Structure formats: C-alpha cells, structure tokens
Amino acid sequence: MGLTSARIAIDAMGGDHAPTEVVAGALMAQEKFGVDVILVGDPQQIEASLKEHHSNSPLPEIVPAEGTIEMHEEPLGAIKRKPNASINVAMNLVKQKKADAVVSAGHSGAAMASALLRVGRIRGIDRPAIGAVLPTMVRSSPVLILDVGANVDCRPKFLEQFAVMGSIYSQYVLGVDNPTVGLLNIGEESSKGDDLAVRTYQMLQENSLISFAGNAEGRDVLTGKFNVIVCDGFVGNVLLKFAEGVGEAVLQLLREELSSGLRSQLGATLLKPSLKRFKQRVDHVEHGGALLLGVAGICIIGHGSSKAPTICNAIRMARDAVNNEVLERINLQYQKHQKQAIEQES
Per the UniProt record, which residue ranges are transmembrane (predicted)? Predict the structure, then answer.
C-alpha cells in the first residue's frame, strides 16, 4: 500500500518535561518523517515552546485543552472530572477522524482510560494491552512483550487475544515473517506454572492464528527465540523496567571502563561507531514508547521522562502503525477467529 501523511495528535502537556521537550520532539518528527502533528494543550505554553525550538517546517496546528491528568490522580475518575484535559481532547480528535493516532508521555492509566471511553475497543477484544518492543541477541528479531502494565489480573482468553494482536503487530510493523509466540512462565513444560499459565498454554496451542512456540522462561526473553511474549501486566511491567535498568547499567559500566585510562580511551575512540550502534539497540529512548493494542484507535504511550528524541521515535511508531493498518488487520483477524469459533461449535 502507498504511504500516507499520518496526522498525529500529541498530548503536549503530558510528561515530566512537557510541553518544551514534547514540542521539540514533535517538530523533529515533522521534519524527519513528514507527518502532520497536532499539538494539544495550553496554547500559550505551546506557542512559547515553538518559539524556543524554531524550525523551518510549517508550524503545527494547535488544539486548545484545559489542564492535564496528574500522575497521582486515579485515572478513570480524573478522566471523567476533566473532560477537556489534553489527553481527552487528543483522543476526541481520533474519534472524530481528525487525527489518525495519539501520542502521550503523560499518565499511562489515563491514556488507556481515555482511549476506552472515547474510541472504544476493537470488536472481539476484551481487554487492551500495552506492548513494548525490546532488542534481542538477533539483530533482525526484536521481541514484543505484552501486556506491560494495562492489566494486572488476566484470564486465559485475554492472554490469547494479546498473542493474536502481538503477532499481527510483529509481522506487519516490525517486519517479522511468521512471528513465534511464547508464554512467559517458570519452565518449558506445558504443566508448569499456575492455573492461568496451564490453561493459557492449551488455548495458545489450539489457536490457528498464531505460531505458538511454547513457554518462554526469563532467560529466553532476549535470545531472539520468541518474537512475541505474552504475560499479565504486573509481570510484564516488572520485566520491562528490569530490562530498561539493565540496559542503562550496561551503558554506564561501558562509559566508566572506557574512560578509566589512556589505553581504554584509545580503544573507545576505535570502538565509537560500534558503541553508538550498541546504544541504539539497548537504549529505551530509541524505541519511543509502547503501543496500546486492542482499542479502536492508535495510541502510543511514552515514558513519563521522555525528552525530544523519545517523543520523536514515539511519533514514528504511531506513523508506522497507521501506515501498516494495524487496527484494520487486527479487526479482520478477529472476525476470522470468531467465524472459526462459530463453525466449530455448530
């Protein structure tokens, strides 16, 4: 299919460094990827940030909003109390077909609640999941982990739906041919784990829409053996934060070791191109954020600490999801899945 100029609504007030870094990242993405960005939030603050980060590109459209959802607020209640908050206004743009996607580095729970209330779920999906991409030992095979925070308590059918959505995203956006799916567990055997794991294993094994490769232990996550790994949001969030912490620790250790002496400094100079590529593979900044899969609109949830490069990469993720028709493909697969289930019952 031909690529379109995606229109991305940016929650300009969401995140620790909003709106300055969010605006800077939006301008960067506009120049780099040719997307149309819509900045949603306080017009005065956004205009001040635009002046600070002057660009040769046309100025983005600004859509006014009133306030934001603070990190300490309970998401659902705050979303209802503040209908004109920046995340709500951005989601409304998608609902009204005035934008193709939303990017927010604000309250992730609020982003999910707003997406559910305003754009709804894809038909056939019970719970949305947040999917995060991590690098693996195999350069061309990143791993998609889901859920990494949307659902603390899961049923087997939720995990089965995560597997189908993750497979579609891995194939059409990450470019993995016939992605393999793993169930995060404490052992390889099908009988391992709690009741949720055992029942989910059976369901994944019987699902013809995915290529299920069995249980994935913690040590398997970054090997490249699995392209999609499913788990509940509690475990997934811990796994994601741990992986990010390991990446940051390795980068810091390398910096310290390569600046500790003349020989190391000379070696660092020679290794500079390789170290730069290594940083790009392990640094979460390069991945931009996580896609909220299962809602009837494209929503990328960024880190609260996101700065301009991360926001820029989150917008790239949104553009790729739009151009690769992720929503349409998930919807098509689920209609196929439901039809097969009806035929089996009859």
Answer: none
